[in-house]
Amino acid sequence: MSKEEIELLRAEIIQNYNAIAQYNCVLYTAVTAVLAFAVNSDRYVMCLLPYVVMLPIHFLCETRSGNICRIGAYLYVFSGENLSGNPDFACLMRRDTVQAHLFSDG
Questions:
Q1: C-alpha dihedral, 90 to 92 to 96 to 100, nearest 10°
Q2: Burial degree of 35 (CB within 10 A; 0-12, 13-18, 19+)
Q3: SS3 label, residue 38
Q4: Among candidates 7, 4, 6, which has minimal Cα distance to 78?
Q5: Torsion angles phi and psi, residue 6, rounded to 5
Q6: What is the 3-state secondary structure (H, E, C) of the chain?
Q7: What is the pTM of this model?
Q8: What's phi and psi for 49, nearest 5 deg?
Q9: Where are the beta strands (DSSP E) in 20-82?
Q10: What's the sign of the alpha-carbon dihedral 36, 39, 40, 42?
Q11: How far apart are CA 93 and CA 21, in angstroms?
Q12: Per-domain boundaries in the chain
């Protein structure tokens, strides 16, 4: 693996982390706005509307987290780097986890 490829993969991991942070900001803002609207209305069933916002954003965050683990597994297996000191790659420290993310279709 070339140094350039490793740097590009690390940049993609950082991009995924930033996307998750942005999704969380959107989630908090949207849920707050929807709850404020629901509390001010007479229909308290509308308090369930935040789930309409939370579930899709949760799935987006899970997809990005899976991408981070796949890239980390690729780096772990093919670059020979020791990632055990990096807490961001704690999900990769078991061999079965590495194989699961490396050979997954997603």
A1: 130
A2: middle
A3: helix
A4: 6
A5: -60, -45
A6: CCHHHHHHHHHHHHHHHHHHHHHHHHHHHHHHHHHHHHHHCCCHHHHHCHHHHHHHHHHHHHHHHHHHHHHHHHHHHHHCCCCCCCHHHHHHCCHHHHHHHHCCCC
A7: 0.71
A8: -60, -30
A9: none
A10: positive
A11: 24
A12: 3-102
Contacts of 99 (CB under 8 A, 6+ apart): 73
User: Which CA distances in Å does 19 have to 36, 38, 51, 90, 93?
Assistant: 26, 28, 20, 20, 24
Residue-wise pLDDT for 3-50, tens only, equals 888 889 888 988 999 999 999 999 999 999 988 888 888 887 888 888
Unique residue bearing structure tokens 């704690």: 90
